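Suppose a colleague, Dr. K., hands you the sequence of a protein chain of 634 amino acids and asks what its three-dimensional shape might be. Before reaching for any lab equipment, you can write down a predicted structure in token form. Begin with the sequence itself:
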Amino acid sequence: MTLITRRSLLIAGTAATAGALLVPVGSATAAPAATGKQITVGSGETYELSATTRVSRLTIAEGGRIAAPDGYSLSLTVNGVETGQLLTETGGTATLIQAGTYQGDVVLTVAAANEVTYETLTFPFRQALYVDADGVDRDRSVLAAVLGGRLTDTLARNVSVTSTGECFDGVFVQDATYTLERPTISLTGNGRCDFAGYGAAVVGDGSTTKLVVDGARISNKGVVRTGVISNDGANVVVKNSTVRCRNGVLPADYQATVETPYMESVPWMLGLDGNVRATNLIGKNSRATYLNSTVFSETWGALSVEGGSGLKLTAVNSHVGNTGEYGYGTYAIGDATVRVLGSRFDVGSYATIIAGPAAVVHYGDSAKEAVAALNTELELGLTAAELASIQARSTVVNSGHFGYMFFGAGQLTLDGGTVINSERATFLNKGQQTTISVDGSQGARLNPRDGIILQMIELDDPGPVNVNGKMMNVGVYTEPTTDPTKDSTFDTTAVHTADGAATFTSIAVGGDFYNGMRKGKNMVLTFEDSTVEGVISSTKAKHRVSSIDSSTYYELGIVTNTVQAAVNNGAIVRLNSGSTWTVTGTSYLTSLTLAADAAVKAPRGKSVKLTVDGTETALAAGKSYTGALVLTVA
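The predicted structure, expressed as tokens, is then:
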């Protein structure tokens, strides 16, 4: 076996060894032919290469197979482009060079295996560039796919990687400090698992990894052909870069599942479609920061956080979103911390999906002191000049559907000059415990086109279904046909830890607030030095269609409201100092508290009336009311 050695200064594209020893192995027919600089593999033949080999022509007949020895992988490049490799089966992990004729500068790279285990599966990674604590590992790299630029053990500058095969990675950094400066990476064809990074453009892996991606141009197209992944404690910093990922075509026999080792498309129960995320943040204590960058997925998600603990996702002065009709900007699950400062989000469905149970999300301004603090906390390594060049900006969200969706418990803060523009409700709470805080003292605004600020409904995710021992996405949501039954143990007038709570400070809010829950959960609204104009009420919420499955996923979360007295869904309003509520329509509450300088009023030329348990009662500052409260406008 010819061994590939490592040196500190490498020139991209020189790894291939022309005329290396060819070692045929037993086959059912005659031995494959290796004539001059050509390799021909016949039908039924298996041909094993012991070392990296350069030829001008490779021909593999149908039923023929070319492979590397155990413990090694084999990758094919033609004129510097990785190609020809496809998965051998849907849901599998192995790939094989397909039958056909390949001509040009044909390099067959035999590389040491890079096997990555994720849950129940082991993925045989192949990557153009593999970096570990000692620098570039030529044994594990397919350097024939790294073109141009300069390559050292600490830096890759102006290199390009192109792949048209499946499950080939661009750069894999394992427990190392490395910088990618102005790389161009284009991967076309399906990946396999974006929880492991199998088929991604850039992967930073391991608790001692510090990977800086500066000035990158990443463009992928394919199922789970992710752009950037930070895993297992890595610290990945992406700046001045563009990451764009487009959907691929799922295998014809793929079955949608929530089992993460096999998942290749978004669970439709989130109200989404698509099969590629632009980025993913996973593992324990991993970090990913996007500074002055553009990150777009077609659908599904742009900046994803998926599982793990102690994860920190940050976007500063970046443009993030979806090019398709559905998709999210960020995802927050577990105890993830997600921060969006001074960025523009143009998203199909949601700015953020908050999936709990202890997620913390903040949208605000990229004030210099805030960015400097993040530079220290996240160990971004920004220089004084870089920090000085960052312009303070406010965040703007433009969403084609909702602003934020709570799929699990979580904390959301909006402040600074943040503006949220959405076609539907700013906040969609699907039966979760929430702590929402909106501070308008510096100009934050909420602009839902349908006029709903907060919509609470029961979780309408039908969940996966166990099919032959696998959790498959074949559930169906069915709208209840009966009225909810009163839970005598639940107090609709009291504040509970598990309620859906929101506080609005120093802001003028125009829009409605609806609690359409069937089971015990109150909507608790607190206004500090704020004005609110709209309806606040317990309601009966009803979807537009009575049955929702994978073909009508886009109907999830969309309901009509009929205001009515609370059953198990109290509406609690606290108007603290300096606050005024202008009631625009009939509102059913269970508790109303007014500070000494707070007021409830009707629009100009109208009057508002309060009844408490059916008795007309005067509204007065400094008073509290509980029970079945009805405010009407005449």
